[in-house]
Amino acid sequence: MARDVIIAGIDIGSTAIRIAVGQKLAENRLHIIGVAEASSEGVAKGVVTSIDDAVSVLSQCIEKAERLSGVPIDRAYVSIGGNRITVQKSRGVVAVSKADGEIREDDVERVIEAAEAVATPPNYEILHVIPRSFTVDGQGGVKDPIGMTGVRLEVEAQIIHALSSHVKNITKTVYRTGVDIEDLVLAPLAAAEAVLTKRQRDLGVVLVLLGGATTGMLVLEEGDVLHTAILPLGSGHITADLAIGLRTSIDVAERIKVEYGTAIPNDIGKKEEVPWKEVGGSEEGAFSRRQTAEIIEARLEELYDFIDKELKKVNRSGLLPAGVVLTGGGAKLSGIVEVAKRKLRLPATIGKPQGLTTAIEKIHDPAFAVSVGLVLWGKGIDDRTPPTLIGRITSGRMVIGQMRDWFKSLLP
Predict the structure, then answer these.
(1) Which CATH number fits the domain 85-160, given the four candidates 3.40.50.300, 3.30.70.330, 1.20.1090.10, 3.30.1490.110?
(2) What are the residue boundaries of the structural domains of the chain, listed by start?
(3) Tag placement on the chain: N or C end, fewer CB within 10 Å?
(4) Domain 198-351 is in which class?
(5) Nearest Cα to 399, choosing from 183, 234, 211?
(6) Alpha-carbon gap, residue 52 to 246, rounded angstroms
(7) What is residue 390's predicted lDDT score, i.e. its pLDDT?
(8) Do 103 and 155 touch, CB atoms closer than 8 A?
(9) Residue 181 and residue 192: Cα distance in Å, rounded?
(10) For 311-367, what is each residue's pLDDT tens digit?
(11) Which is it for strands 180-186 and 284-288: parallel, antiparallel or unpaired?
């Protein structure tokens, strides 16, 4: 197997590290040949808090993925998330370079570079530049200006910044495992590659990536990214609320949430109780399933209020025909779709990785949306075609090049 047809995606999350390994087959199809998963250590709220612990767990996860796939992993696409991400709007303007006025690829590249020339917040790096729409001589709403004729070319773009120390710590963690980073990709962008269809992106959809400590959201319409946000709430906050409300440990609360949790209290009898016992401990008791459901519902409603507030910023509250697509590990909670429909006044579904061939059943788990999306992202770049989500997204490769040089300078 040639190395250049093997693509790996590493999702470093707050609760778990997940790896997917894909192989490009004939007819440009993608086959997932291996996955691996391990509980995170040294990562909190999407940010590396202990490099040694994170390197240890990531190394074990990589070794497992290599055993299952039968190929070495020496390079990978890596996700970045957490609450150290900021989004800023920007505009770029250039004059068309050729005398005949025909807009060419280099004109588009120059106008996107002009949009990048925005005041970056202190200690932040540009991670992605996402062109939303182009304007040619005052004619707005242009999707692809190449081949058009004009004198003045403008672009409206979103600039996604990541805290420099956040980027350095993630890259250092990955490099210390011996794996080279092909690209850093914002987690919701990667997940969208795996779970959204072209029709959903065209009609208008909000992707909600429910992680352990944060929730990423992406609003798309007519194939363009309208809005991006990282919210400071995740499925771990539901667990914490259950631990407080049921007066039990975090481990027991997590087990109760996974095994018995639902977000629809009206479906449960008022007196229904379930006995529990702490694994390997002496703590035991019984809990009310209805009380558990009320706690879960309240926290989800709070999360959806945050999401609706973000939708109002782009005038899309209750106005996205393709609705809400929920994905990530937190999306497996029973009743989460029903609460989303009620609170956001939109259709709602669970998003799972699609458009792949694989013999691995686990790959259809929403928790693997980001890692599989990273493989698809890498396939688009390897094909020398842009990722299907955005026609001309500027990736974090320049940042990665700088970080690689910085990391190598630290080596003895």
Answers:
(1) 3.30.1490.110
(2) 3-83+164-196+353-410, 85-160, 198-351
(3) C
(4) alpha beta
(5) 183
(6) 34
(7) 44
(8) no
(9) 20
(10) 999 999 999 999 999 999 999 999 999 999 999 999 999 999 887 778 788 888 999
(11) unpaired
